[in-house]
């Protein structure tokens, strides 16, 4: 017998996940070999899959869970419908749970999908049993309960999700002339791919990857994962700066969700896109670099020379931060009193840009220092 502490199984989700995975792994290839799939079914799989995936990332996640921007009602309807099609529960349940995940990240008792409980649990296990950590509580989602579209979707979730998952592929199948093929690809395979790519954010993105911004939690940046998850793989950045509508902040980082939101803002469907000031991002990265440099020096026997250099850098860093804070407060106070002359505001902006740049250069210097430290344990005179 299992211990009494084992949480009771949730059969609906267990059967749903098992059945869809089984069909995707067995029936889909079998049908492909015996009968073959039409291109229409593959196209529907791709387009429908992208619509569902983006509704979760741009809608459920960045819009409703984190309020990183505001969206026009038409866009919210689209996200609500295709989000329901992704079979990941209603916006209200999903976002409330996700807010708890951020607030209590890695806390096994309160984070509904804490990565500290292992890969399986954070990937899918947390949904298969009625764990106390997964208790649904909308106390942290009062704003969402005031959103009519969110509540409509929540109250009619079953009808919407059945229509989207069975009705729509059925219609497409009738149109293309191969109902089974369409149901298998646009219905089941799409669901399974959508499910597991989203689940990877809770599991793999907390296990595998870099931590350039913070090591206070398990979240990682992972380019490969970002590619398969519409940009959500930059999870280390996301956990420290969750109010930013971007996850991949560099132009070359793969973040289609960010591009979608930005494009929507150009055509008037989104506004108030929130970003974190570049200076705060630089500060977080430098903090991490200093931390890592310190750790390396701890292990070195020639640490005195290096420590001096590092201390100089640290002093510059804190001076730059001090000046930045002062500039911020000056800007804030003046704006409040409406005293800010245009030229002064421009001067402050320029200085902030300079400080940003100086931090960026400092990060480069530190990286070179650490490289040299590896090659020769004593610094050049
Ligand atoms: Zn999040
Ligand atoms: Zn996370």
From TrEMBL:
Q: Where is the Fatty acid desaturase domain?
A: 39-261
Q: How does it sit in the membrane?
A: Multi-pass membrane protein
Transmembrane portions of the chain: 12-34, 41-63, 75-94, 156-175
**CDD domains, per database record:** Delta9-FADS-like
Q: Which UniProt keywords apply?
A: Fatty acid biosynthesis, Fatty acid metabolism, Iron, Lipid biosynthesis, Lipid metabolism, Membrane, Oxidoreductase, Transmembrane, Transmembrane helix
Localization = Membrane
Entry annotated with the keyword Ubl conjugation = no
| Family under the similarity heading | Belongs to the fatty acid desaturase type 2 family.
Stated name of the protein:
Fatty acid desaturase domain-containing protein
């Amino acid at each position: 017998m299992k211990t009494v502490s084992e949480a009771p199984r949730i059969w609906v989700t267990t059967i749903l996940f098992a059945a869809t995975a089984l069909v995707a792994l067995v029936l889909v290839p079998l049908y492909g070999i015996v009968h073959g799939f039409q291109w229409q079914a593959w196209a529907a799989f791709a387009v429908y899959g992208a619509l569902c995936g983006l509704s979760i990332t741009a809608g459920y996640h960045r819009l409703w869970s984190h309020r990183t921007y505001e969206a026009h009602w038409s866009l919210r309807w689209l996200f609500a419908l295709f989000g329901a099609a992704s079979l990941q529960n209603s916006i209200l349940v999903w976002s409330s749970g996700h807010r708890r995940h951020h607030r209590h990240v890695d806390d096994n008792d309160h984070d509904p999908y804490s990565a500290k409980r292992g890969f399986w649990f954070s990937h899918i296990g947390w949904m298969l049993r009625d764990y106390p950590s997964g208790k649904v509580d909308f106390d942290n989602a009062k704003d969402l309960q005031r959103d009519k579209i969110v509540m409509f979707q929540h109250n009619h979730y079953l009808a919407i999700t059945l229509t989207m998952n069975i009705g729509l592929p059925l219609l497409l199948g009738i149109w293309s002339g191969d109902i089974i093929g369409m149901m298998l690809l646009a219905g089941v395979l799409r669901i399974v791919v959508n499910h597991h790519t989203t689940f990877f954010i809770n599991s793999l993105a907390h296990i595998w990857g870099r931590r350039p911004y913070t090591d206070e939690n398990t979240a990682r940046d992972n380019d490969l994962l970002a590619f398969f998850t519409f940009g959500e793989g930059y999870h280390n950045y996301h956990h420290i700066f969750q109010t930013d509508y971007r996850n991949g902040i560099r132009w070359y980082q793969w973040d289609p969700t960010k591009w979608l939101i930005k494009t929507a803002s150009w055509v008037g469907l989104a506004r108030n896109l929130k970003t974190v000031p570049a200076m705060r991002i630089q500060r977080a990265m430098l903090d991490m670099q200093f931390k890592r440099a310190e750790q390396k020096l701890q292990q070195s026997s020639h640490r005195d020379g290096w420590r001096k250099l590092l201390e100089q850098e640290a002093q510059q860093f804190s001076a730059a931060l001090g000046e930045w804070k002062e500039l911020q407060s000056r800007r804030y106070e003046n704006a409040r009193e409406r005293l800010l002359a245009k030229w002064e505001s421009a001067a402050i902006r320029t200085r902030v840009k300079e400080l940003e740049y100086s931090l960026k250069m400092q990060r480069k210097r530190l990286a070179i220092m650490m490289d040299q430290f590896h090659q020769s344990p004593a610094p050049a005179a």
